Amino acid sequence: MSIKDQNCAYCVHGEPLAAFGIYVCDLSDFSSLYLFKEQSHPGRVIVAPKAHIEDLTDLTDDQRNAFFADVARASRAVKAAFHPGKVNYGAYNDKGRHLHFHLVPKYADEFEWGGVFAMNPGRVTLTDAEYAEMIEKLKAAL
To answer: Distance (Å, rounded) from C-alpha 30 to C-alpha 3?
Structure first.
């Protein structure tokens, strides 16, 4: 499963990834976990396959099961580390054509509780130290 797209942030990492996210860790042989830099929803992460897969329908049954096991594992870690009221899930890959799921913790006192989350509300960015602290919380919960 080594297929990579040299124009894809999830495949090449570096500057394209740094524009929106931070690599956290590999969840399995299949998927990786990323912290979304815009943190209006504390603990927001992304789960993406390591290989360049464009659509959920491109997965075999075994790959789909592995991917969703990783999504569930990441969601449990987000819940344990940040204690949201709910985790919302979104898969939007019409621009970035690499299958990925956004896991968006929602909090009852939050500006978007009860509604659809904004993809990038641009309200909260953190210091490198704050991102590192969040990453450590996630890793500890995994």
So the answer is: 12
What is the secondary structure of 35-73 as a DSSP string?
EES--SSTT-EEEEESS----GGGS-HHHHHHHHHHHHH
The domains of the chain are located at 9-141
CATH class of 9-141: alpha beta
Q: Is 25 helix (H, G, I), strand (E, B) or coil?
A: strand
| pTM metric for this prediction | 0.94
Say how many C-beta atoms besides its own lie within 10 A of residue 27's C-beta: 22
Question: What span, in angstroms and rounded, lies between the C-alpha atoms of 78 and 26?
Answer: 15
pLDDT in tens, 64-93: 999 999 999 999 999 999 999 999 999 987
Contacts of 142 (CB under 8 A, 6+ apart): 25, 27, 33, 73, 74, 77
CA distances from 85 to 10, 20, 80 (A): 29, 24, 11
The predicted-structure confidence for 8-41, as pLDDT tens digits, reads as follows 999 999 999 999 999 999 999 999 999 999 999 9
